[in-house]
Amino acid sequence: MNKWGKKSYKHYKTLHPDLQVLADEVLAVHDCSIFQGYRDKETQNKYFDNKTSKVKFPFSKHNRDPSEAIDLAPYIPGEDPYDMERVLFFAGIVRGIADKLYDNGTMEFRLRWGGSWSQKADEPFAFDRNRFFDGIHWELQR
Q1: Which residues lie closer than 8 Å to 32 by C-beta, 6 or more apart?
Q2: pLDDT reported for residue 11
Q3: What DSSP assignment string belongs to 56-71?
Q4: Sheet containing 137-141: which strands, arranged edge to edge?
Q5: Could you give the CA distance from residue 60 to residue 67 in angstroms, rounded to a whole number?
Q6: Residues 71, 33: contact at Cβ < 8 Å?
Q7: Could you give the CA distance from residue 42 to residue 93 in angstroms, rounded to a whole number?
Q8: Do 15 and 70 form a contact (C-beta atoms < 8 A)?
Q9: What are phi and psi of 49, to 5 degrees?
Q10: How much is the pTM?
Q11: What sign does the CA torsion over 64, 16, 9, 104 have?
Q12: What is the DSSP string of 100-136?
């Protein structure tokens, strides 16, 4: 049985309840790591300056308390968690679980994926090659 490591659990505690439920369900299916939940001003602006985020503090859903965004990646020992093929496969798992949880009323909000920024809640899941790709990022759609 998979379980959260210390770093992942530290981030897990900062997440919106919908994202905690989602993360636990995903973990039960595929081992994974949480790289980010809540981000403070210094961290968010560092990511903006490094061009790994498109927004400054306080405009990311990572900047809300509890965090309305999660950076969640597959964990495979010795493998790159940002490997494109693994990220795309894992995204299908996350989206499928999120849709199930939303449909059965366990999650209040739908998700938007950082690999498909133009996607709206009621549109089919798709990979968006024409936008900034943040394949491990998931955020609640309000």
Answers
A1: 2, 8, 23, 26, 72, 73, 74, 75, 90
A2: 98
A3: -TTSSGGGSSSBSEEE
A4: 32-36, 69-74, 137-141, 110-113
A5: 9
A6: no
A7: 32
A8: yes
A9: -60, -35
A10: 0.93
A11: negative
A12: HHHHTTS-SSEEEETT-TT--TTSPP---TTS---TT
Report the C-alpha gap between 82 and 40 in whole angstroms: 23
The burial of 11, by beta-carbon neighbours within 10 Å (0-12 exposed, 13-18 middle, 19 or more buried), is given as: buried
> Which residues are 69's β-sheet partners?
139
Partners of residue 34 on adjacent β-strands: 72
**In this structure, which amino acid lies at residue 7?**
K
Nearest to 75 by CA among 38, 35, 117: 35
Q: What is the pLDDT of residue 116?
A: 83
Sign of CA dihedral 28, 34, 40, 41: negative
The residue with tokens 């994974």 is 32
> What does the pLDDT read at residue 119?
62
Place of tokens 């490591």: 5
Tokens of 95: 């989206």
User: What residue ranges of the chain have pLDDT lower than 50?
Assistant: none
